[in-house]
Amino acid sequence: ETQDKPKEVMYTISIRALSELLEIENSYMEHLKNYVSFLNQKVESLRMFINSVKHENLLSKADRLQYVSNPLNSLGLVRRAHEDWPKLMAYIRDSDTAKVDVEEMHTLVNRTPIAEDMQEALLGMDRIEHFYGLKSSDMVKGLLAGHQLQTRMSAPDCLALGDYMYNRSEFRRSAQWYRLALSVFKEPQNSIARQFYLPKQEELRRKFVISRLQEGSVDSLSQYLKELSEDPGTPLAYLKPKEAITAIERGCRGKFPPNPQLVCRYNRTTTPFMRIAPLKEEEISRNPLIWLYHDVIYDSEIAQLTNLTRDEMIQGTTDNYTTPDQLIRLFHVKITEDDGGKLDKTLVNRMADISGLDVGNTTSLARINYGLGGYFPEHSDYKDIRLYPELNEEGDRLMTFLFYMTDVPVGGATIFPSAQLSIQPRKGSALFWYNLHNNGEPNSLTRHAVCPMILGNRWVSVKSMLNYEQMFRKPCYR
Ligand SMILES: O=C(O)CCC(=O)C(=O)O
Ligand SMILES: [Fe+2]
């Protein structure tokens, strides 16, 4: 436990890092396989030894006396006791090959997630279930928001979620997960899990009933026991009023009205560049002003931008942003300063060409990778100069430019809850919006969020441009 962990210990908050954890598991399994084949050899040798010393028919005292009356038998017996037994004990105890594997496995265990990582993974699953209003019995079967995966959840997974929900006082949900754990646990392929992780079935039943009692009453005990015997797909009754769904949740569930098709055209006019290389441009909204562009970043550029090692990225948290509420981990991020690589400059110049804005000494480019159930709560990219007078020098963040570097098949939309807009990432697209009104005041309709990730590997590249640099370039939109 006390061994030093690597600097960046979280895996769950970026898919890139999770793939590293998978590599670690692969080598763990390699050593475990070696160890098992070593054990097999050992078992084989020991079995041979046992077979060479057969005493089955020496059950009575008379038989035994007869046996040792034979000097060859007695010699063998004494020699085995003197020479073979201690050798066997040493053989059973250790072996250099096994030691190496066991030590390696210890090292790998020390590199694997800390308790926080486990909590983060459970939180991610919690969001997926809650934000999208999914049924736990669907999730167990790999059915996520209408998308069928070839993966099923195990009984220990269900139990972990049950305990997690219970500890967060989500008692209806914990009861559902416990009931699911019970039913998955009965499946034959879970026999190992049964031995390793699961409390007895009775314990799970008890946890279910306690969860129900937390919100219900002892008078209804027989009803809860009846629920327990029902199919785990039957939703449990609400014993507490159901919470209303929030605007963000509605947006993430695809309940916003479809984005109005305002204009879709080839832009040939904003800058001289666009007359040579016209862009597929969609006007998404007039207030706030939002445009979406397609095919503005090449696959080769994306490959280069997303080729980052663990050491190069840091953990992004909400305290770096204007999110009001709780501190949460957002993603892994790499921030390139203004004098960053050649490719960064290319991208920044492209943003300037597309937007017609001067990107001068802009804020830095961030490359971001989201993780399991990764979520960015509602926030603004502007800070509001009236609240932060120190921004007077450079001005607030006039606009935000977002490159989508991957497709996100399920979940992970960028949404503007007040403006009721939702944009699904498409590889190579870019989203661009004004955070401020023409008079420089913040437009609160630009507050935005990222819906919890369900399926995929979400990479974006983001940059903001500051207001005062634009004095001579910003066209006045109305
Ligand atoms: O990932 C996204 O879609 C949005 C990122 C974002 O809002 C930000 O970096 O400020
Ligand atoms: Fe943002």
Automatic annotation (TrEMBL):
Catalyzes the post-translational formation of 4-hydroxyproline in -Xaa-Pro-Gly- sequences in collagens and other proteins. One of its GO terms (cellular component) is endoplasmic reticulum lumen. Belongs to the P4HA family. The keyword Iron applies. This is procollagen-proline 4-dioxygenase. It is found in: Endoplasmic reticulum lumen. GO terms for molecular function: iron ion binding; L-ascorbic acid binding; procollagen-proline 4-dioxygenase activity. It comes from Drosophila suzukii (Spotted-wing drosophila fruit fly).
